[in-house]
Amino acid sequence: MNHSLVCAETVSRVSSVLNRNTRQFGKKHLFDQNEETCWNSDQGPSQWVTLEFPQLIHVSQLQIQFQGGFSSRRGCLEGSQGSQALRKIVDFYPEDNNSLQISCPCFWGGWSVPLEALDLPKPEWEP
């Protein structure tokens, strides 16, 4: 059974917040388990989230849920260890709906990279 590795020591960053309204649309809503709230980014060429974990993690699954009216056509998962530069791990192609989408390496079309130990995964998507 998979569970979220996000904990109190996980540092999150986002590309932007809609109208800079962090109270209503801030990153704190990414993991609050409340379907009535969400992080909402401003418009731009791409939106992203970084999660800096206090320990190395193995990415075995990526879960994304878009809310009403916005869905990405293409995304990319990047990652790094320690002070290394971010590097692309895999592209992914979300469906155009607002259901929870779960992506696993076995669905990533021959992903030849083994489950890597990362402490800074960064999913990014384009409108």
Low-confidence stretches: 107-114
Please write the string of helix (H) and strand (E) elements: EHEEEEEEEE
Strand order of the largest sheet: 1-2-9-5-6
What is the first-to-last residue Cα distance?
32 Å
Query: Outline, from the CA principal axes?
Result: globular
Using the CA coordinates, give the radius of gyration. 14 Å
Range of helix content: under 10%
Number of domains: 2
Question: How many strand elements?
Answer: 9
Number of H- or I-type helical stretches: 1
Based on secondary structure, the structural category is mainly beta
| Strand residue content | 25-35%
The overall pLDDT, averaged over residues, is 79
For the biggest sheet, the summary is: 5 strands, antiparallel
Protein name: Nuclear receptor 2C2 associated protein
InterPro entries: Galactose-bd-like_sf
Give a brief description:
With 127 residues, the chain is mainly β. 3% of the residues lie in helices and 29% in strands.
Report on this structure.
- It comes from Aotus nancymaae (Ma's night monkey).
- This is Nuclear receptor 2C2 associated protein.
- The chain is mainly beta and 127 residues long.
- It has 2 domains: 55 residues, no CATH class; 47 residues, no CATH class.
- It has 1 helix and 9 strands, in the order βαββββββββ.
- The strands form 3 sheets. The protein has a 5-stranded antiparallel sheet with strand order 1-2-9-5-6, with no helix packed on it.
- The chain is globular and about 35 Å long.
